[in-house]
Amino acid sequence: MNPATGGHAAPAPLPRHTLAWPARAARADLLSQAIDAGARVALARWLDAALPLVVRRADASALEPAPRVHLGLPLPPDQGKRRLAFVLAPKHVSRCAPPPTLQRVGAALPAPWRRPLAALDRDARDLGVTLRVFGSAAWQTLTGFAYLRAGSDVDLLLRPDSSEQLDATLELFDRFEAAAGLLIDAEILFADDRAVAWREWRQAASADDRVLVKSLAGAALARRADLCIEYAGAAA
What we know:
Order of helices and strands: EHHEEEEHHEHEHEEHEEH
Structural class: alpha+beta
């Protein structure tokens, strides 16, 4: 119970990139939110296949009297590469899961991606880091649809538990890009799931430099030193 209100504490918001499976009871609600007939057809097929949606940031103009989970559905290129947006009450999320690990994703992709990503995963785990994947590579693994194209970035999530581990992992990213010819688009996750793009972090010259931080609440500037006060911790 919440001692301040006498009621149950509200559940913690789901972090960005969390995979969320809608409850069957939410189907009609979701279909009513589809912006056109094509979106309704795509969403219906998605739900029929029991595929997840993904937690996204709230719309800037959203004014909600009750908690809502903001969800996205990124369609593959051969279905128009549209990004559909939905909202649900938390009770209509039947289950959720973190983004898949690089180990799982790398093993599921075609050979040109599988070999270098397996090496990156192995080297990261040697540092005590579990990398997770979002974006095209993750969706191709989760759905079996063709999301990756030549030149696609590898979208990664990194939760460091120390500045030393963070520095070592970013150096690993540099070596990977030079050796594999693939580009990494990674987010560094700090406490409360505040995220900073790894290239922006590297380009900041000092602890007092400000970087753009993304969260469920939006985006804002913060000092690197303030972010490092409390690391998010390595989550498997």
